[in-house]
Predict the 3D structure of the following.
Amino acid sequence: MEQEMADIEALNEEEPEVPTIFKKATRAVSLKFEDVVYKVKLTKAGFCGKIVKAEEKVILKGITGKVLPGEMLAMLGPSGSGKTTLLTALGGKLGGLLDGNISYNGKKFSNSMKRNMGFVTQDDVLYPHLTVTETLVFTALLRLEDSFTTEEKIVHAESVITQLGLTKCKNSIIGGPFLRGVSGGERKRVSIGQEMLINPSLLFLDEPTSGLDSTTAQRIVSNLWELAKGGRTIVMTIHQPSSRLFYMFDKVLLLSEGSPLYFGEGSQVMDYFSSNGYAPAVPMNPADFLLDLANGM
Ligand SMILES: Nc1ncnc2c1ncn2[C@@H]1O[C@H](COP(=O)(O)OP(=O)(O)OP(=O)(O)O)[C@@H](O)[C@H]1O
């Protein structure tokens, strides 16, 4: 018995310490956006491809909001309402006819802010033949600064695997359409992990739960909630979160055809609409109710 206890103690002592990467955000970011307007020029080609008409389409029609460190913002709205366009604009990735003010700790977008940001796109771009560990170690070797040794970079990658609950599949290949690999939820967590390696204080995610069952979606949003509570600012688009997911969001932005219908505390949204005469006739998931409203139903 004594020997057993000594072995357990020895094991605990050998447990490697989780690197600082997941402990706290190092450079907290307050994101503020005011009256964001985005337009595109649509051209119509006539005979022989000659442009006969160019018209302007307004995609974002004056959107304002603020997200603080420790908060998670969900952008909701029907398909085509402008969620991805706004996310891309906030992530500093949208050029062209963009108006309004977007600031990060009161400053404009800069390269140093870019290095403090992560962006997880809807379509994960991963190598199908690499395993989860190989993918994250490869990314760590490429993206972490040279001030880290190779061993430290590998420890970071392993820590991301543990923190995102990928230990069980760490030796499985990613896979693709013709190659069976990890599940959709695991794949999404690998994509999030790739961004987490640089420990960004501001993280954008486009539809991180799309195509996943509600338990897997819950797990991913819980991971993101934990990251937010470490002082990070998290902004995501999401289609139809379940009720329990919905209440994890500190702030909600509801869009309809590029216009904001609501921006504020997630916990206040139902009261806001019911005080304006819009309340569901039967108890329902707030996200479904908001989507019905944004669809004009
Ligand atoms: N560069 C562009 N040229 C023309 N139309 C555009 C352009 N960018 C976006 N749009 C249009 O703007 C609208 C909003 O697109 P966006 O992708 O932001 O919507 P979304 O809310 O993210 O939709 P989904 O939920 O289906 O992903 C759509 O009607 C889209 O076709």
User: Anything to note?
Assistant: Residues 214-229 form the longest helix (16 residues). The chain has ten helices and nine strands.
